[in-house]
Structure formats: structure tokens, C-alpha cells
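Supplementary Methods, section 5.1.

A reviewer requested that the exact input to the structure prediction be made available. We therefore reproduce it here, unchanged from the version used in the analyses.
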Amino acid sequence: MSTINDVALKAGVSVTTVSRVLNNRGYISEATRAKVYKTMEELNYQPNELARSLLRKQSNLIGLIIPSVAHPFFGELTNHIEYYAYQNGFKVLLCSSHMDPAKEKDYIAMLKRNRVDGIIMGSHTLEVEEYRNLNSPIVTFDRQIDNEIPFISSDNYQGGVLATELLISKGCRYIVHICGNLELKMLSNYRNDGFKDTAEKHGVRHITIQTDMNVFDQQQYEQIIQRMLETYPDVDGIFASSDIIAGFAVRECLGKGKRVPQDIRIVGYDDVNMASWFIPGITTIKQPTEAIGRLAVELIQQQLNGESFEPDNILPVELIERSTS
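The structure derived from this sequence is encoded cell-by-cell as follows.
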């Protein structure tokens, strides 16, 4: 097996130069950098990542824990986080917890063993103590678990206001909000507060229907919407807390003979790619997913560098109107 000394000898440079190329430290000309990389490829040299991380006390790894990589919103968020992490010299270890606290603890232990430089947490379980006790930088998404730990969220309250104001302006007088389980204490719960306050302000009938604790179980969406349409046949507006729920709502309404948007108007949340592909296109509240991913990486870097950072990061949302309203 080739060593760093072999690479230096064949490339005609010092071991220090090879080390600088590997760690992207100090000035190295592009010609020298290209020569070192070509030599490593020829010798099939594989640097010892663990040894390098111990030496520089930084692994250049970020752990990302999300509820489900299969969910379109978290898939798109992961894509942006990975992009900006890589642009800044980090690689991402992705952990999909599936709402299982035991699995989440196992992932946290694994990330500790791999000496990650920081963790971005999008957990939706009720367990948070494991995160409070971490001795490395952490950023949370849509959840505030400690005054000292920075969090990022979209302006959920304003999102609820925008969605409800739109439905009311279109003539809706009986609106339902289908949301995740409010017991989870997520910052996304503020969408429901914005919904209720706006509906009450305008004197509009309204109800909130929650999912069970497994908020990303799509099989329950169909049943929830079917029951809602049977129990509340006069509902003429739906505010769904995700575009996935909104998509199910469109399908079930059409299946019941209700025209969208003539008989019932629907607004989703997130603005994932499928919202624009869907027929009819889903009106939705756009979360700034790319900005969230970029900021999450920046907050990890700021903590690593000992820089000051903003603990509360609430980003603006935008109403995207399409055919369901």
C-alpha cells in the first residue's frame, strides 16, 4: 500500500506539500496540485481520513439527522445542505431516523464516533436531551431545544396567515387546517396559530385536524381527508401543512366529485418540486429551502470558528399561487 512518502517522492515534492494538498492548507499552485493528485491516482494512494482528522482536530464531516429522506421536502433540503457543505470543504453523513428515538440515539453515537464537526438536526421525535449534551456545534431546523443552540425555521405563523387570507379572499367560509401532530412542539405548529387567528379575525368557520404522531406516514392522509369530507361536507377551503397532504386532498376531493378550485380551494406548504408538476398545480406557501440549507452550514462554520452567531433564524415565506385556489 502506497504512503504519503511514496507520493512525495514520485511527484518530486516534499511530504509537507502533499499534506497541504490533502488538507487544502496554504498556497499551492494549480500545477503542483494537479501533479500531486495525478500521482495519488497512479499509486492508488488512499489517505487515512481518521488519522488526518485527529492531526488537525477537524474531520470536515457534518452529521445530518432528518425524519425521512423519502419525504420530498427533506430530500430537497438535504440536497441543498450537501451542496453548500461540499462547497465549504465538508462532507455529509446522512441519518434518516424514521421518527424512532432509539434509532436516533444510535445515529448520534455513530456521529460522535466519527468525530463529526457538527450536527444539523431536523428531528421530529420528543427526545432532545441527547442533543443538549453534545459537545460539538449543532443547528436545529424547525425546532428550538435550547436558548444557546441556533435554530432555523421559515416564518410559520406568517405562512398560516398568508394561506388563510388567500382562501378567505377567494370566498371560502368554512376552512379546515390539516396539520402534523401539535404535541410534537415543532415550530411548524405556528402555522396553525396563524390559521386560527386569521380565521377568527374574519369571522370564518374553521377547524384543525391533526395527524397521529407519525406525521410523515402518508397512508393516514387518505383516511384523514376522507373522514373530513364525510364529517364536514360544507368545507370549502383546505390549508394543508405540506404539499404532500395537499396532493392527497386534491385527489380525494376530485374522487368525491368536488371540483378544485370551483367547489373547494386548497393551499399546501413547502413548495416542493412536485407542487408545480401536479395537475392541477398546487397553490402553496414556499419555504426558502436553499437559503435554509446554506444558513445551516454557515451556522456550523461560525461555531467551529468561535465566531458570534444569531441563535434565532426565522426566514420569510412566499405565497405561490397556482390552480388549486
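The first helix runs from residue 4 to 11. These observations are discussed further in the main text.
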